[in-house]
Specification:
The complex is a heterodimer. By secondary structure, chain A is α+β, with helices and mostly antiparallel strands. Chain A has 19 helices and eleven strands. Chain A starts with a helix and ends in an 8-residue tail after the last helix. The chains are: A alpha+beta, B mainly beta.
């Protein structure tokens, strides 16, 4: 290849995007455009990077299929980093798969693997954990350059965290850390460090017998095998080992169950239940009637797990087959916690990508974002369809556990 | 024009720690190749790297009987082969778009990759003396027995071709197997042409057809 292109490519590989730009900043031939695109992406100007990579793909001749495929892969990665998840679904998934096949058939296994990792990361981000794992399994491992190894292990760790397998996650992050130091790319080392933080900062709060304390992810994992009756506010589920009652569509019943569980073994007064579950300021007779109806409904729902009995001043929970009742709650309780949890990864998201990842309607997400923005909990940039939302990562508010998905599915 | 399949006689490498071969030359004993931040001397008898010089080496390599010449970024470095010291540098004619390098008849010959050109350059000043047009992206360049050969690499295809130095007309063409790249070219003065293998990190010896 050419001298300056070689020099610029080597600078990029060594994590020096400015050095790369210095060498090809004024050139507009196809390989220079591609290198400039990747350098701009590394410097964080994703919009400019996308344009450059598009023109590079056009500028490469029809016989330069590998170079074209590399541009497609780079553009896909930019789409991933800018959380542009909606358009890759149809267009990109097929072009990315095509590019991956082209690279593999021309012996560029490292970049073919990179394309596969991008697909796995996208699936993981969308909460499609099994598919992400399947995609990862298709990628032949050896010999991967250290930087690719880091990405691979981060995906493995992400899958393990979402499945609450902290030991697997830790092992993967150890391997990622080793590979990152070998790659000598500071950004990768930092990414592994911040992933490690997820395991070392509280992921949840445990409330039992009137007191509460923070839980690490590993402790949440051990909780999955506990025999206690758990009121799980992440999934709006009441469960004991294999038996689970989902109250996801019954917010009032779930609120009552939680109030009763938090107070257990003490009872809860009617007034406290009414104001806590109905958000009523003044308690009147109609509220008391409604409480009787809702408690009756909850009693039916919880039958396999617990009994609810009336006391002199209110109601109390009596769990079956266990002597322990705990509430598993978010470290910080917020309205729109699910939206905040996704944004806590520090990356800019489009509202449509958020809706896709959360399985909510775009309008609901939009309303939540606007409300959060009014209280300065999130910020946006860009306009129209290019608008992106983000929040600085909150310490103690890790992304791993809070991303939607089957939290406690073994 | 004669056209035939290239006959690969020997393959050297891949070499430990070498990601790609960017340029190739021959000093009569060793085959030198550029690997980004090093110039490496390979013993063609056993295929092992005998010694390496720490010098920026991004594209073509040449040898004038005493010095090594090496393209780095947009310059051509003149290097003391014994010490690895860079003695002088001249600007490369392609301003960094340069690829192959050869020494012949007191001049340097530089391939300009995407421009599909070969420049004859004054080795002291870097002045372009004349320019030969090729039909393909030019990688390695070499002269042997008055024949001008150059490597091409366009798309996924590479070949080695002998061209008329006056008209640029292709006189003879050796096609490499699909997926085999030529990133540098040097004659051993006899019937072997050493070819850099690009990202494969190899150096190959291809038989030069005898004429007549």
């Amino acid at each position: 290849m050419e001298s300056l292109i070689t020099a610029a490519a080597r600078a990029l590989e060594a994590g020096d995007p400015l050095g790369a730009l210095n060498r090809v900043a004024l050139r507009n031939d196809a390989p220079s455009l591609a290198l400039r695109g990747i350098a701009m992406a590394q410097l964080g100007d994703l919009a400019k990077a996308k344009t450059l990579l598009r023109s590079a793909a056009r500028a490469f001749g029809p016989r330069e299929a590998v170079a074209r495929a590399r541009c497609v892969v780079a553009e896909a990665e930019i789409a991933l980093v800018s959380r542009d998840l909606s358009w890759p679904a149809k267009t990109l998934a097929s072009t990315l798969a095509g590019a991956r096949a082209t690279l593999a058939s021309h012996g560029d296994l490292a970049n073919a693997a990179h394309a596969g990792h991008i697909e796995a990361r996208r699936l993981l981000l969308l909460g499609r954990v099994d598919e992400a794992e399947g995609t990862l399994a298709e990628i032949s491992v050896s010999p991967l350059p250290p930087a690719s190894l880091v990405v691979r292990e981060l995906v493995v760790a992400g899958i393990a965290i979402r499945r609450l397998k902290t030991r697997d996650a830790r092992a993967a992050l150890d391997r990622a850390g080793k590979a990152a130091r070998q790659a000598k790319i500071p950004a990768l080392v930092a990414e592994v460090d911040s992933a490690n933080l997820i395991l070392d900062t509280p992921a949840a709060r445990l409330i039992a017998r009137g007191s509460e304390h923070p839980l690490l992810l590993g402790e949440v994992e051990r909780l999955a095998t506990s025999t206690a009756l758990v009121v799980d506010t992440f999934h709006h589920v009441v469960r004991r080992q294999g038996v689970a009652v989902s109250l996801g569509t019954r917010p009032v019943l779930f609120a009552l169950a939680r109030l009763l569980a938090q107070a257990w073994p003490a009872d809860v007064s009617r007034e406290a239940l009414i104001s806590g579950a109905f958000q009523a300021r003044h308690v009147d007779e109609s509220h008391r009637a409604r409480l009787r109806v809702e408690i009756g409904r909850l009693r039916t729902q919880l039958k396999p797990l617990a009994e609810i009995s009336a006391t002199k001043q209110g109601f109390e929970l009596a769990p079956r087959k266990t002597r322990d009742v705990i509430v598993l709650a978010r470290p910080v309780e917020e309205k729109h916690a699910a939206v905040l949890a996704i944004l806590a990864d520090g990356e800019p998201w489009s509202s449509s990508a958020l809706a896709l990842a959360l399985g909510m309607s775009a309008r609901t997400v939009q309303r939540a974002l606007e409300e959060l923005a009014r209280s300065s909990k999130v910020q946006s940039f860009g306009h129209g369809r290019a608008r992106r939302w983000m929040t600085p990562p909150v310490p103690g508010f890790p992304t791993g556990l809070l991303l939607p998905g089957p939290l406690l599915k073994a | 024009m004669k056209r035939s399949a290239a006959e690969i006689v020997t393959e050297y490498g891949p070499f430990p720690g070498v990601e790609a071969v960017h340029g190739v030359t021959y000093d009569g004993t060793h085959v030198w190749f550029a690997s980004g931040d090093k110039l490496n001397a390979v013993d063609p008898a056993n295929g092992k790297i005998a010694r390496s010089l720490d010098v920026a080496a991004h594209a073509g390599t040449a040898f004038d009987g005493r010095h090594l010449f090496q393209i780095a970024e947009d310059r051509i470095q003149k290097i003391d082969a014994a010490t690895g010291e860079v003695l002088t540098t001249i600007p490369a004619p392609g301003g960094g778009g340069d690829s192959g390098l050869a020494w012949a008849e007191g001049s340097l010959w530089v391939g300009q990759y995407r421009e599909r050109k070969i420049h004859q350059v004054d080795p002291d000043t870097g002045k372009i003396l004349r320019t030969i047009e090729s039909k393909r992206f030019v990688t390695g360049v070499t002269w042997v027995d008055g024949e001008l050969w150059h490597g091409t690499w366009e798309g996924e295809d590479s070949d080695i071709r002998r061209i008329d130095p006056d008209t640029g007309k292709v006189l003879e063409q050796l096609d490499l197997p699909a997926g085999t790249m030529v990133s540098g070219l040097e004659s051993d003065g006899g019937d072997r042409l050493f070819c850099g293998g690009g990202e494969a990190g190899k150096v190959r010896a291809v038989r030069r057809p005898r004429r007549g």
